[in-house]
Amino acid sequence: MREKETTLYIGPQHPGITGNMMVRLKVTGDTIVKATTEVGYLHRAFEKLQEQRNWLQCFTLMCRFCVPEPDPAEESYARAVELLEGREVPERAKYIRVLVLELARLGAYMLWYGGQNGSLGLYTVGQWSVGDRNYILDLFEELTGGRVYHMYIWPGGVRRDLPKGFEEKVLRTMDYLENRLKDYDDLMFDNTIFQKRTQGIGIVSKEKAIEWGVVGPVLRGCGIKSDIRIDDPYEVYDRLDFEVPTQEGGDIWARALVRRQEVRQSIRIIRQVIEQMPSGEYYNRIPNPQKWALPKGDAYARTESVRGEVGMYIASDGGTKPRRTHFRGAAYVHGVTLLEKVLVGANISDVSPIMNSLGVCPPEIER
Amino acid sequence: MKELKEQLINRIKAHFPDITVENNFNYNRFDVSINKESIHSILFYLKDVMGFKHLSDTNCVDWLEEGEFEIVFIVWSPAEKIKIFVRTRIDRNNPVLETLDMIWPQLHTYEREFREMFGIQFTGLEAPDEFILEDWQGPPPYRRDFDTAAFAAETFFERPGREDAEDVREAITKLTGEEIPEFAKKYSR
Lengths: 367, 189
Known about the structure:
By secondary structure, chain A is of the alpha+beta class.
């Protein structure tokens, strides 16, 4: 008897992804023969809204592009504005920005531990890692006043200086997290279920990764050493000593191993930043925001997030409001072009782990 | 870096003499403007011959006053560590461009969004009409002349009792006769 093709709808609410997005699958038995990404559930027209706000007001929308890791969008916007205006940023602000970005990376990786394992039914890891993420959120709360959305990195520097004793707290948290990583190895990477459900699943080949415009840990999981922090360094990354981990294989397992190593590298970066932190100003004050006009032209700044390249394009007509802004998230490529291709041939039960490992974040697709 | 940028510009100019170059940036970037008929050729050339393999981003800017859309392709060379902004302009009243998704597959998604949000038609683009918007009948909403406030006023209605930013508790009291609770009085105006 010939197997009949069936249509299956995954989402819009779904444990594989942060936010709302649907994947329409054509399946034969439990094998996917065609996948189509359907978006349109959370479009907020941020780019249109920004055209009606002044350059400073736009900054408050930046963190909302991606909930798990909002800071790279703030960083990209702030740097794009600074590039266009030629505004200098104090040294101390640059170090604080790197500190915040790396803390955000750690927080996002802790959430990823939970998501990736939760999609395989291994819920304990998620309960631990989300608990550990709270220690990072505590730091953010003390520094910025917000746990999830920080609105901290803004044009000209950062919004406030480090509170007294903050560096020591960060170092203590890093020591705690570093000791904790062995527990994650035991429970996750040494777990047969995790290995069997991730090895050889969701493969992206090296050639296709380049052709399809893949970025971040997904690209590094194909054996390609690519990281904006090294290739196109910003802030003070060129003064820091860290490695860009890569893995061969291009499957979920390879991507997980890359992320596992990146957590250690982020801890290493944070310790160096604390050690090298200069004193001085943290903010190069902007003029009155209502009268603050940027010169005519455009700029694009990009930041390495846990999902890969996150960039902000801004175009100015010389006025106090943007002519156009555009946010480029890694998921814009991973969630549509890449996902639709990688899912073909996969098993239905692997949809969620694949989506998680590709870093599909729907708010980046429809801003 | 200045010399490297000059070398790259000369190589591009040798093949595309009609381009306009802007190279007054003090970081790893220069801009190239070209007519829409040659945009495919230059992007293919940059990607396949000059090693600008990575498409960082693509944007559409509506220059309403000039009657044109500007499409900006930001390409990156992993070897040279240089980014180029490749620009082309199309007529706003007849916004048609041939699809470019054979160069970078991810352009397929960008083109679908630009078609929906700016009304640019990409000849040869094979994709369902709808991408983000559902049952949208109005003009392309990301165009500069689309008035979001007017659209909201025409499409949606104000909730009764809130027309003049009235205090919500006072409005409820007026409508229902319900008293403002003691604990809430200090928050009420």
